[in-house]
Each structure stands twice: as structure tokens, then as C-alpha cells.
């Protein structure tokens, strides 16, 4: 690989971009990023210009030799890239508002990753990601794709299964947050603990072992859930009070998204209450974004503002920089990412994307072997993975029946007429972004 690195960020106008820039600046000595290309589409031009100007100020203030380019021409940017990161949102936040509003108005959880909203986000996103992969084959065939576009697990699997592209890593901030927050709860330094995660994006469990080889999982479960005000490790899920007897019985720490499965009624009631009083999470995010972009416009702001932590995805971008660093320098950092299963979890197909703890080498992620889950975890995991597989297939083929199977299979969607009604309404609402369904 060349000495100076070229990074291309698709969806560069995102409010998360300053964190990415900060992450590259922090690592500049090890990872000399000389070119950072921020790419967006016409509708995102204003945001791209605002956040791009801020990125340029950050680089200048840090005194590093890195050129920041802003462009609407993806193909121009991709030429000879070393790493491509994707953080795009097809249809922008307005599409997410529909993803959450339509299901909620029928009494269903919307949820942009694992609910009806997540299914539609996948339908809109998969074709775009596959197009990007086709461009990469032609313009930067040696590059790695680091994806943090949601639903991150499904997007990664689509690239592996349908894009025939192996150099892809899917990333989520939940394991990253867990490592930081839970080490603190145990009164330990995270470097002295080994976290082993296994499952799929937003549906994984983990164990913790300390440097003396002692399993600390049950102790953490007690600290986290053995009280009434269990704290969530992520900004977009407020409550984390699972049923104690259920969590205790797992002997593995669930992720915050388990609230949706283990406590569906409570999560739905909370979302409906919020929906009635303040609107959806997507609408809240729109307000946070507005506030962030007002800050980014300040010509004196040349560092990441603390308000960015109000977004659920905080720490995403910094983790992306570390993955790139670890691949580029064969650093062999331990990180949890979405990658091809290949037998790591014996309960899931080899071709699936799984979210597991890996060593990130110069050749990409090498997973720690996991084996099989107990029935406590296995059932739900296999249902959700099958649901993901069908959703990806529907995104590629545009087949109505396949999509309806995914809908009725998802445990957060009531099956039968409700599923069909919500699905039809979402199809109509997102028609413009779903050409495969409206040939
Ligand atoms: C979480 C998830 C992300 C998700 C985000 C939503 O942390 O891991 O996958 O995108 O939060 O945050 P937002 O602020 O957009 O609601």
C-alpha cells in the first residue's frame, strides 16, 4: 500500500463526519491519511459544504498534511482509494420518519434497524451499496469497504452474498460502547478485560473475562441489571430494565436492542407515548442534527462539539478509524465487527454476516471461534437471521412474497393483515427508492 492513504467517505455530509476526521487526526502518525474525499448527493450538498468546511478547519488546526476534497461525483472520488467508508442514508431523515411513523400509527415498533423500519431501510440501501461495490471493482479494486450504514449487518451480508466482494467490514458502536461503559462498571481498565461477542448486528450477547482468566460475566449482569434503574449504554434506547430472572439465566450479557425482544410490550408502549407527545426518534434526531449543523457553521469551530454524543451512533466513526489503522498496519487489534460467519457460530449459515469479536489483521477480520448457542439465544438468533436473509433477497429481487415472509417472521411485527397493511403502506411511501418493486 502507498505511504499516503486515500480515504473516501460516502455520505460525507453526515453529522458524524467530525468524529471521523478527529479519529484520523488522532492516528495521523501511524495512519497518514493524505486525502480525505467526502462524497454526497445533490440533496445533501448544503450539509456537505458545511461539514466539509469544518473538516478542513479541523485538519488545519491539527497541522496535519491532509487534503479534504468535497464532491458530488462518487466515481471521481473512488479512483485509487485505499479505504471506502459508507455512512449514507437513502432518502435522508425524511425516509426514516416514515419508517418509524407508519408502523407506529398501526401500533407496531418502527425501529430503523430491527423493526419494520429496518426492513425498509435495507430495501432502500442494499441496491445503492451494491452499486458502490460495482464502482469499487472498477476504480479501486484493492480497497476495503468499511460500512456503518444501517442496518449494518444486512448491508454487510448483501455485499458478501450478492456483491461478491470479500473486503468488507460492518461496524456498529454497541460493542464499542459496551467495552468502555462496562469496564467502568466493573471498576476495571478495558484493556485488562476480554469481551467476547457473538450474534448478529443489534442481536448479540457477550461474556467478559479478566486478565487472571476469571469469568466476570455474572458479576457484570448483577451490576447492570440487578437493580431498578439499569442504565442504557446507548443514547437512543432510554430504558434498559430487562426481566431480572431472564437475564440472570442467560449467563451472557445481552445488548440494549434485546429490550425490543425481551420486553416488546414495554418498548412499544414507550415509543407510542413518545410518538404521541414528541414525535418519533427520527424527528428528534432531525432537531439534534439542526442544532449540530448550526454549530458546524461557526467559522471558529475546529473541533468535534460535545453535542454529537446525543446521537445514538457516537463512537462509530472513531472505531472505523481504528479498523482502518489495524488493517493498514496489520496491528491485530481486537474489535467486534460484522464479517462472514464461516463456521464461527455453528447455528448460522456459513455465508451469513455475523457480529463477532475478531482480530483485525492486514488481511481483514479473523474471528474468534464461538461454537453454538444455548436454546435461550439460538431460537431468536436464527429467526432474526432468516428474516435478514429474506429481506436482503427481497431488496435484490423486488419480490413481494419474499418481503411478506420477512415481515411476518420478524418478532416485532404482528403477522397477518397488520403486517401486510403496514408493508403496503411503506412500499407506497418509499416507492421512489424501490425500483425493484415497481418495475
Ligand atoms: C445506536 C445504533 C446505531 C443507530 C443509532 C441511532 O447506537 O448502534 O446503529 O444508528 O444508535 O442513533 P440516532 O441518534 O440516529 O437515533
From TrEMBL:
Keyword entries, A-Z: Carbohydrate metabolism, Cobalt, Glycosidase, Hydrolase, Iron, Manganese, Metal-binding, NAD, Nickel
Top-tier EC class: hydrolase
Binding residue positions for substrate: 96, 150
Cofactor binding note: Binds 1 NAD(+) per subunit.
EC number: 3.2.1.86
Annotated site residue numbers, Increases basicity of active site Tyr: 112
GO molecular function: 6-phospho-beta-glucosidase activity; metal ion binding; oxidoreductase activity, acting on the CH-OH group of donors, NAD or NADP as acceptor
InterPro entries: GlycHydrolase_4_CS, Glyco_hydro_4, Glyco_hydro_4_C, Lactate_DH/Glyco_Ohase_4_C, NAD(P)-bd_dom_sf
Cofactor requirements of the protein: NAD(+)
GO biological process, one term: carbohydrate metabolic process
Ligand binding (Mn(2+)): 172, 202
The Glycosyl hydrolase family 4 C-terminal domain, residue ranges: 197-413
Superkingdom: Bacteria
Entry keyword annotation includes tRNA-binding: no
PANTHER family assigned: 6-PHOSPHO-BETA-GLUCOSIDASE, 6-PHOSPHO-BETA-GLUCOSIDASE-RELATED
Recorded family membership: Belongs to the glycosyl hydrolase 4 family.
Protein name: 6-phospho-beta-glucosidase
Provenance organism: Enterococcus plantarum
